[in-house]
Specification:
42% of the residues lie in helices and 9% in strands. By secondary structure, it is of the alpha+beta class. It folds into 3 domains: 5-95, no CATH class; 108-199, Glutaredoxin (3-Layer(aba) Sandwich), CATH 3.40.30.10; 206-322, Glutathione S-transferase Yfyf (Class Pi), Chain A, domain 2 (Up-down Bundle). The strands form 4 sheets. The chain has a 4-stranded mixed beta sheet with strand order 8-7-9-10. Strands 1-4 form a two-stranded antiparallel sheet. α8 (280-295) packs across α9 (301-310). It starts with a strand and ends in a 5-residue tail after the last helix. Mean pLDDT is 75; it is low at 1-63 and 69-118.
């Protein structure tokens, strides 16, 4: 769930609506008295289609929390404000003179925001890349974060502004609320799983969690970094141009062998996932399977079944649509 808080010109307009992504926003004046009194309004951006699967009460709570954070207001004491915000999502929202709602600019289907407070995470990603796996985890957790598109073909990852965040020049990057940047897929996924244990993104027990880390490392480190890297960017591992076909062939062999090994594990799964429920390892397997599906590489039957199962998850379909792909 992606929210943005930023100032709006005063006075605000009455209505703002979006077209292509189906999101709509409401605009009204901001209260000049009470706990949220201010001289200028605040915009809370909500893309309604992506958050449609989230319960209304949860959505109301997140919007209220975001606004209270912007004003450094204790939400527990703002009972009157709670009442108004709960009504914003009712049929009478147009008449409420409290908050300004504005749809943020969209690029490649993903709203791009500026970081507005220290409690929001910043996520640097490229649509359709390995960062899609982390994007899925963030959405599965219903977290509030700012998404920033890194255009890899245009060289964004080598520009000083991005290197100041991640000197490695790679994605994904998740900047935690404390300002620390996590820059490896495995580290981000593991941190999310440990930070939000109620989501059960790891299997139970040390033995199973060790297996999850083993699978995660194999999927990212071998299938992706050793296999797909040779397919997508063979120049990184070849010395001469005539080596390109051989390097690409090596990459395909690594990827296919990796899927074969993963498929054998999935053959014994009763849930269809790598463990008895969805975990961070499944998010990693999905993005490399997505690449296989898009590039025409054959997936073993158990891996294809896993891929199709993942596509039934609402958050996975939401992420693909946000990133510009049709599930």
């Amino acid at each position: 769930m992606i929210f943005s808080l930023h100032p709006l010109p005063w006075p605000p307009t009455n209505t703002v609506a979006a077209g292509s992504d189906g999101a709509t926003c409401r605009t009204a004046g901001l209260a000049q008295r009470g706990p949220l009194a201010t001289a200028s309004p605040v915009a809370v951006c909500i893309a309604k289609r992506p958050v449609g699967a989230v319960r209304q009460a949860r959505l109301e709570h997140l919007v209220l929390a975001a606004v209270c954070q912007a004003f450094n207001t204790d939400c527990r004491k703002a009972n009157a404000v709670k009442t108004v915000f709960q009504s914003i999502f009712s049929s009478k929202a147009e008449a409420l003179p409290l908050a300004s709602f504005l749809l943020a600019p969209v690029q490649h289907g993903i709203p791009r925001y500026k970081r507005q407070n220290a409690t929001m995470m910043d996520f640097y990603m490229t649509p359709g890349s390995c960062s899609t796996g982390i994007h899925i985890l963030l959405e599965e957790l219903d977290l509030i974060f700012s998404a920033h598109i890194v255009n890899l073909p245009a060289g964004d990852s080598s520009k000083p502004a991005f290197l100041a965040i991640n000197p490695k020049g790679s994605i994904p990057v998740l900047v935690r609320p404390d300002g620390v940047a996590l820059t490896e897929f495995q580290a981000i996924a593991w941190w999310l799983a440990l930070t939000y244990p109620k989501a059960k993104l790891l299997p139970e027990g040390a033995d199973a969690q060790g297996e999850a880390l083993d699978l995660l490392s194999f999927i990212v480190g071998t299938i992706h970094l050793q296999g797909y890297t040779r397919i997508f960017v063979p120049e990184r591992t070849m010395f001469r141009e005539e080596d390109r076909p051989r390097v690409e062939s090596q990459g395909k062999q690594i990827v296919l062998k990796g899927f074969s090994l993963i498929g054998k594990r999935l053959e014994t799964s009763t849930s269809g996932y790598l463990f008895d429920h969805f975990t961070i390892a499944d998010a990693a397997l999905f993005y490399v399977s997505f690449w296989a599906d898009r590039t025409g590489l054959p997936l073993p039957a158990p891996c294809r079944k896993h891929f199709d199962l993942m596509l039934t998850r609402p958050k996975v379909r939401q992420v693909l649509m946000e990133e510009g792909y049709r599930p």
